Amino acid sequence: MRRFRVQLPWRLPDPNRLLHLSRRLHASAANSGAGAGQGKFLLPGASAAVLLMLGVLHAKRMYDDKQLVERKEQGIEPEFSPDLKASFLRLLPLRSMSRVWGSLMEVEVPVFMRPAIYKAWARAFHSNLQEPALPLEEYPSLQAFFIRSLKQGSRPIDPDPNCLVSPVDGKVLRLGQLRGPGTMIEQVKGFSYPVSSLLGATSSLHDTAEKDISGEQTEQNVSENSSAKSWWRVSVASPKLRDRTLLSPKRGIFYCVLYLHPGDYHRVHSPVDWNIFKRRHFSGNLFPTNERAVRTIRNLYVENERVVLEGQWKEGFVAIAAVGATNVGSIKLLIEPELRTNGPGSMMLHSQPYDERVYEPEGSGMMVKKGQEVAGFNMGSTVVIVFEAPLSKASGNGTFSPDFGFCVKAGDRIRVGEAIGRWGQA
Questions:
Q1: What span, in angstroms and rounded, lies between the C-alpha atoms of 346 and 423?
Q2: Is there a catalytic annotation at residue 403?
Q3: DSSP designation for 79
Q4: In terms of residue numbers, what domain contains 63?
Q5: Is residue 197 flagged as an active site residue?
Q6: Tens digit of each residue's pLDDT (9 = 90 or more) over 221-264
Q7: Does residue 212 carry a catalytic annotation?
Q8: Looking at residue 77, what DSSP letter applies?
Q9: Do 81 and 59 share a structural domain?
């Protein structure tokens, strides 16, 4: 699999070359073991079959990747298309494999080998070695280097109060506005999943969505009846009634999906000043969350293990879903260090209900500031932000400020502290 090829400081041999060597071994065994029975040929034959299958799959993957690059260059968006690998992944014990890999990552590296190993990692995954807060020799394990902190000032936070900033370094996969009841988040063109499944059935987002829909219906009714009740406009009291309905701030619900490459900075920061009311931990699978997996695995973010933080900020609802992935069995919360993920006792998505904790005091929760560190991953993964923001905002003279707008688009790279969206600009 790709992760083993890029994580090692050397290159794996080409599958076609391995197949050629296997055939030579098979022929040699056949010549030396003539008359000794068919059993001697079983192992070389099976090896050749396996290598042949891997070679075919590797060739197909390279072809698919080339086709994808060509389609992107032509402006054609990739669509959802399940493949054999997606089905095969469901048969693997990915949770156990992730725990084993995590143990290996925590093995202490001899001091004299640390710079060479970490530099090899940085070259493979394009990490910036000018940013770590400590010298390379002071990171005792690859895991410690992976979750490294950065030098102060490496990630300046946008101070604009009318913006929401990125909580992570990553690539923008999807973004947009959620509309109506039963709202869906687009995983990839051709497949979407319910936001309620991502955040949980008890999420307060559902109440927020119903409130927004009710407000839209009320505004529509007022517009439809305005001509019939035009005499109200000359009434002394009518301006107050009309202002109260039409000048109330309108809000929408938006989302943004950010993918963290293995070489990215892997700590999660607060996108805004907000109060965290609840934490939900969903036990589930640990499928990869790279772009190929997004195109081929149904309900990827809903099936994977994840931790959701939910609360309120000055503009309304906000939630952050930290989604685990293969080799990312551990999602750490700085605000709740006792939380443990990818435990050996929890297996599949629906085997047990999610665990929920309400932060005290109830109703006000835990206050965090924009840019404050709140969580971290032990490997590359994905963060989904769902938030409420003003579509338009009334000013004192009866006019409206421009609607909320994203500062990024799908495919952009973004870093912690950079604005995702702004509003209220003149």
A1: 42
A2: no
A3: B
A4: 2-28+43-76
A5: no
A6: 434 444 444 333 333 333 333 343 444 457 889 999 999 988 89
A7: no
A8: P
A9: no
